[in-house]
Design brief:
This protein is mainly beta. The protein has 3 helices and 52 strands.
């Protein structure tokens, strides 16, 4: 006690005690300092902190230095670092000077520096460690007792603190970015001379994630990265991202050591690489790569949580190795191909363990197993491509039990370091069956030339026959109006991907269904607000000779579909004709059809009911058949429809009156003449719907019903100046399926030459199944016999 008394006496005199430390403490703007006695330190009687003021000295166990003050303190012992600790806190706003972050001339105590960065949530906070990168640790303290702790806040609760992590010096993390309000602490022991914070602060645009960690890897021991709030659970409905750079001539191997998933109410929690597939548990990278962690809207009634920890090991880029295991993968084969020139003898693809067996191409057949390594001079991301082909077929109808089978990427692909990957499925149906490709979640959109998918995957659909390639149906993306595609040929379905694609985006199902006669049948379900383009097969190169395609197009209730014809190109036909027909699926509807010589409508056809759009090609002698159809779903125009109905009624009335006058004149002026048989009247001839029960040779579809033709135009055929009977085109019924499949192709007959003042009327109307068929009537006003 004598020493304490002497110290107090010296303080009263304004002089320091022998061996004591006297320091002038000055606080800046928005800065506070708290010095207090450590919990486990010596007693207050052994060492005191005294404030020397105006003529008085007061000793304290704890003292708060407010902003903008300057006070002289004196410790009554020679080793105050064992008794007192210090906490320095600085508040920082958007308009604050980010250069002057550290106060000067502080006592040598165990100190915690706190920077409270209070900014709106839409402002990002950048922490750049510059030339002194740090590493993340899950320990409470770093080996040198110097550690940074970074804390963020979630958007839905600005008071809820979420630790980003604890970081030690001498690491690979060069910078951190936090969204919104941030808290940074730096803990240093009293023996550490602190004249620099070790980082620079900046404000950045929104990062759209909870945090972003940037690391520059170096050769040596593995480094570890952990999700925010490890191991107490990543925050609800948040994103976190790591961007990692790999040094030249090295590659990084990523291994996930811990991943626990929460119970989700909405969306799905998971992690993925920016350049590979979701759920890949290990990967190797030669360049910068990205790891992203995404949480869902969690179910808080369940105790599960999202935790994520992964390890990165940097190794010299001598060789990249992976395994191709096709055991248990039925019908799957793999072809590796070198993309770089091997003129200098470079062979990138090697078999292991015999790494001397290298080549520029490698084929792995079904059910085989092989270890492959990549030469150190080759980059597996850019220099080697993998083509994975899956063959799907069956021997006969009884063996084809495939119904709505999901088309998926083989599991073995997920472990490969190759990013240049293509996937192909070859589907072959036996005679009597048709291949059907459909979607479950996302319908398909057909691309027009020059258009690209918004997402990361594209499908190319091609068909083959016994003689080789037949046609390309088109390119398709998820998110459209095409429900289903049917074809009787062998199908090649190719998956084209871009960086960041996800196998869960695939939504193609395969089935074998009863045979159809058309080459293609496509089911389309357009919706309002989403225009649809449909292209004829092999667009750009021309539809194959004698090929047929039908689109079954539905119309939403209380809407109409406007059908437009775009970018059409017609061939010169050697045999047959091009037929384009639009047939609404109603018993009382008319069929609108066109040939290659007809001008297609420049205005859209308005179709209020589900309809078939049919296209069939001829055998061309020149040119090619290409048509782009455009569908738009719209609300019906009621006023225009009423005007059309009124106009049609008025026209019909005028026509009836005209016909009545002509008939009366004919009966009044015409002499009775014996009837001339110009045709066979068969009351049993019916139009049917889409398919004849008999073949063309043994049905009677080619026999027309002829009514009283001798009174109409027979006399013209026997006039002196008429040498021969004009040729009339032959009606050829469509031989396709009936009902739901497309309607028949209905050719328009060539007109019969008439005298200059004849009236020609051609009427074609769909009849019910029980009617007698069609009636064709020609009314001539100038062929009345002389009296």
């Amino acid at each position: 006690m004598p020493g304490v008394a002497l110290g107090l006496m010296l303080l009263l005199l304004g002089l320091p005690a022998p061996g004591a430390e006297m320091v002038l403490v000055t606080t800046g703007l928005d800065e506070t300092i708290n010095i207090r006695q450590a919990v486990d330190g010596p007693s207050f009687a052994d060492c005191q902190m005294c404030i020397v003021g105006d003529g008085e000295t007061v000793c304290h166990q704890e003292y708060w230095f407010l902003p903008n003050v300057s006070l002289l303190i004196n410790f009554t012992c020679t080793d105050p670092q064992h008794t007192f600790i210090m906490e320095v806190e600085k508040d920082i706003g958007e308009d604050h000077n980010l250069e002057d972050l550290l106060p000067q001339a502080l006592p040598s105590l165990n100190t915690t520096y706190i920077w409270a960065i209070n900014v709106p949530y839409n402002v990002g906070v950048g922490i750049n460690f510059g030339g002194t990168p740090v590493r993340q640790t899950d320990l409470a303290h770093c080996p040198d007792l110097v550690q940074y702790r970074v804390t963020g806040h979630v958007r839905y609760d600005n008071t809820l603190e979420v630790p980003v992590g604890t970081f030690c010096r001498n690491g690979t993390i060069s910078s951190l970015k936090i969204q919104g309000r941030t808290l940074i602490t730096l803990e240093v022991p009293w023996s550490e001379v602190t004249d620099d914070t070790g980082f620079q602060l900046s404000f950045v645009p929104p990062i759209r994630r909870f945090s972003v960690v940037t690391a520059i890897l170096q050769p040596g021991s593995p480094v570890y990265f952990m999700s925010a709030n490890w191991p107490r659970g990543f925050p609800n409905d948040e994103l976190m991202m790591w961007t990692v750079a790999v040094p030249p001539d090295y590659h990084a191997t990523v291994t996930v050591e811990n991943f626990t998933k929460p119970s989700c109410v909405k969306r799905e929690a998971g992690w993925f690489f920016g350049r590979s597939m979701l759920g890949k548990l290990s990967g190797q990278f030669h360049k910068a790569f990205i790891v992203t962690l995404q949480n869902c809207d969690m179910d808080y009634s369940n105790a599960s949580q999202l935790d994520f920890r992964f390890r990165v090991q940097v190794s010299h880029n001598y060789r990249e190795s992976f395994e191709i295991d096709l055991r248990g993968q039925d019908g799957v084969s793999v072809r590796l191909k070198q993309l770089v020139d091997n003129s200098d003898g470079l062979s990138c693809i090697c078999r292991t363990p015999d790494s001397s067996d290298c080549g520029s191409e490698l084929q792995v057949g079904p059910s085989n197993h092989l270890n492959v390594s990549v030469h150190f001079r080759c980059d597996p991301e850019t220099d080697i491509a993998a083509e994975v082909t899956t063959n799907i077929s069956c021997n006969g109808i009884p063996d084809c039990s495939v119904r709505e089978m999901d088309v998926v990427v083989p599991d073995t692909v997920s472990s490969w370091p190759l990013t240049q990957q293509s996937f192909k499925w070859l589907v072959e149906a036996p005679p009597g069956l048709t291949i059907e490709l459909s979607t479950k979640r996302r319908k398909l959109q057909q691309l027009v030339p020059g258009e690209r998918c918004d997402g990361n995957i594209t499908y190319r659909v091609r068909t083959f026959c016994d003689h080789g390639p037949r046609s390309t149906l088109g390119l398709f993306c998820p998110g459209g109006a095409v429900d289903m595609i049917q074809t009787a040929d062998t199908v090649s379905l190719e998956l084209l991907t871009t960086d960041g694609w996800d196998t869960r985006d695939m939504d193609i199902r395969l089935a074998f269904v009863p045979r159809v006669k058309e080459d293609y049948i496509v089911k389309v379900s357009p919706v309002a607000g989403a225009p649809v383009h449909l292209l004829t097969p092999n667009w750009g190169e021309g539809m194959a000779s004698k090929m047929t395609v039908s689109w079954d197009i539905s119309v939403p209730e209380e809407h109409v579909v406007k059908l437009s014809f775009l970018n059409q190109s017609m061939p010169v036909c050697l045999h047959g004709h091009v037929f384009i027909s639009v047939d609404q699926q109603r018993d009382d509807s008319t069929v609108t059809s066109f040939r290659e010589t007809d001008a297609l409508p420049t205005q859209p056809l308005v179709l209020p009911h589900r309809f078939w759009l049919n296209v069939s090609n001829c055998e061309p002698d020149g040119g090619q058949l290409d048509v782009v159809f455009h569908l738009v779903v719209a609300e019906p125009e009621v006023v225009a429809d009423m005007l059309l109905i009124v106009a049609a009624a008025a026209g019909a009335l005028v026509l009836i009156i005209g016909i009545a006058l002509v008939v009366c004149c004919v009966k009044h002026c015409q002499k009775p003449t014996p009837p001339l048989a110009l045709g066979i009247y068969n009351p049993s001839v019916g139009r049917g719907k889409r398919r004849f029960g008999k073949s063309r040779e043994d049905n009677e579809s080619h026999i027309y019903a002829v009514i009283d033709e001798d009174r109409v135009y027979a006399a013209q055929f026997h006039k002196a100046q008429l040498v021969s009977i004009p040729e009339v085109d032959v009606y050829r019924p469509f031989q396709g399926p009936m009902g739901d499949p497309p309607p028949p192709k209905r050719p328009l007959p060539d007109a019969i030459p008439m005298v200059s003042n004849d009236i020609y009327t051609f009427v074609k109307k769909k009849q019910d199944a029980g009617t007698n068929g069609e009636m064709v009537t020609f009314l001539g006003s100038n062929d009345t016999p002389a009296s």
